[in-house]
Amino acid sequence: MISPPAYPLPSPTARAPDSAAQPEPLSRGKRSVGEPGKYWPQNSILKIALYDYAMDDPYVLAVKKAASEWLPHINLTFEFVCGEDGDVRITQNLPGDHGGRSMIGTDAKNAPPYAPTMSLPADPGTSSFAVTVMHEFGHMLGAHHEHQHPDANIPWNRPNLDRLFDQSELQTNFRPLPRSDIYDFSRYDPDSIMHYSIAPSWSTDNTFHSRNAMLSADDIAWANKAYPKARHQPGPI
Ligand SMILES: [Zn+2]
After folding, report:
1. Coil, strand or helix: which one is 209?
2. 234 CA to middle of ligand 1, Å?
3. How far apart are the CA of 103 and the centre of ligand 1, in A?
4. pLDDT tens column, 57-94
5. Is 112's pLDDT higher than 70?
């Protein structure tokens, strides 16, 4: 059973056009959907403010644990801090709100100071909590939705979607991305953590796409490419 929104919805401001495309490294294959112009500086330390003073320890631990799934695959460091001063500022949704939202990469720098740049579900005890955190941190790192890949070709049931979502949400979270050089497209990856689960009624062929519960191989490949760790240098023979 899937109740929309099955996956978190980033704020519309997360999709502000950005023409600051960066050249792609030639030595690595393309993976997933990233926007290199919004990647954080390589090897930087991101100060991640857990914005809401009301967060209790189990909540903070659950956020850190899920977010840290990305860390083995990137060269960034997450520095979690209390308060409202950070590169990324996380707020906790009201009870019952199981969605989440995040700005894409460095769009967070354009947010008003002290305004949250990511919101996460209230209850860390739900089965979807870790998935939502990983998904939102993917956006924070500069990834877009995989189901919006231009090769996804999902036969959306527009009348049903129109009933379920407002036009802004449809534009931001469902419409296929243009084949623009600002994006780094790979092959379409239905297993991506950045892919929505799709209820049968959302598509004209009653496609059911279940929720992906972990980073896919291509998510990891994308992270490795976006934020490549220094390769281990072999010692003297
Ligand atoms: Zn999303």
Report:
1. strand
2. 39
3. 9
4. 899 999 999 999 999 999 999 999 988 899 999 999 98
5. yes
Model confidence pLDDT, tens digit, residues 14-23: 332 222 222 3
Tell me if residue 40 falls in helix, strand or coil: coil
DSSP letter (8 states) at residue 96: T
* Alpha-carbon span 181 to 187, nearest angstrom: 15
pLDDT of residue 95 exceeding 90: no
Cis peptide before 10 (omega within 30 of 0): no
| pLDDT, position 78 | 98
- Which domains are assigned to the chain? 29-226 (3.40.390.10)
* Residues in contact with 38: Cβ distance below 8 Å, sequence separation at least 6, in sequence order: 18, 20, 104, 105, 106, 107, 142
Distance 236 CA to ligand 1 centre (A): 46
Which residues sit with Cβ closer than 5 angstroms to ligand 1, an ion? 8
pLDDT beyond 80 at 216: yes
Interval between CA 7 and ligand 1 midpoint (Å): 6
8 Å CB contact between 225 and 74? no
